[in-house]
Amino acid sequence: MKPRRLAMVAASAAMLVTASACSSGGSASGGSSSGGTVNVGISTSLSGSIANLGQTGLQGLQLAIADINAGGGLLGKKIKVISADDNVTPATGASNTRNMITRDHVVAMFGPVASSIASAEEQVAAQYKVPIFFHTSNDASLMTKTFTPYAFQNVPNTVMEPRAVADYLAQKVTPGQPITIATFAPDYSFGHDTVDGFLQALKDLNVNFRLVKQEFPPLGAGNISANLSALVAAKPQYVFNAQYGGDLVAFTKQASAYGFFKDTKVIAMYAYAPLDALGDQAPAGAIGFDRAPFWAIDTPAMTSFAKKFKDKYGKYPTEWAIYAYAAAQQWAWSVKKADSFDADKVIKVLPGANPPTILGDLTVRTCDHQTEVPEYVGTVSATGDPQYGGMHLWDKSVFTAPFDKIALSCDKAKSMQP
Q1: Does the residue 318 lie in any domain?
Q2: pLDDT tens digits for 294-333?
Q3: Are residues 101 and 220 in the same domain?
Q4: What is the pTM of this model?
Q5: Does some domain include residue 413?
């Protein structure tokens, strides 16, 4: 997710040192002797329109570390989380990361929401040889164009998500029958890349479609009436919307006022957080896609985690919390496997391995450090789910797009790396 207005040379951003919002940390050590504290860091968006993603990701990480400490810590040491707000700015994210590494001596970093910030943080982490785990930011370029051996990504990326949705739609429409499509996405690389990937996937699947409108409002735009008016005037049968968080909630409420959902099937990230925020205003019949819908992942590990998370925070876990927890599990497993906090030892044991997580034993692909995860697609239910307090989640029939059907091939990924 790389906002064009915020894009800058990552190396230049990494050199900036501004005031950090980090809390002071205890002593950190890369050794394996018993006693003491080891710090890990997370610089993410804790304010603004996408704050929910950063805040719940932080909660997922904090819960994972609490569970690790409750189990005796790692290599005889307790783990402490150092956190900071990046203010949705690459320079701040880079500065926070540098401060956490040089001042707080973190032995691992966990990534931000926006991929523009992730790219800046990625270069700082590589400079100081500290592993960084991206559990929310998902631009495919992070593991290709700007790839470093210290970076890992465990979420479906901007190639995988739109391919999964296109595959789902291709199975729903009548083969050969023409359909009209419009797109709506935030005006930065995540939005553009996701939309482009979706349209290309439709072409690859031989879906007969005509693109009638594209709208790209700024990230966090408060007034999208002009964009919506243009969308309504185009009268598409389907709208692919790559917004998320508060932006998607605002779109849904404003589009509903236009009566937009009556004649148009909207495809968007209708995951737990926006559906929870919308309540009875959730658009029944809309198509939702989600990286980790806890209610559709029917495993004892996920059921237990969802309950534990709700007991602690009063809400069910977002996909951002789930993947943050899983990323911490991956890191902890690699530390135990390496029998060291030393970064160069940790990054050697994780590629090709399949450490156990709440999402299952997921392989970390060697060629690009992308975790082999699926993507989920479903339909927003017209009735509330009594198991989850009457929330309008998805109908029971959920489409799961497997990793090997939606991911870049290793040959393709490696060809895009530096």
Answers
A1: yes
A2: 999 999 999 999 999 999 999 999 999 999 999 999 999 9
A3: no
A4: 0.90
A5: no
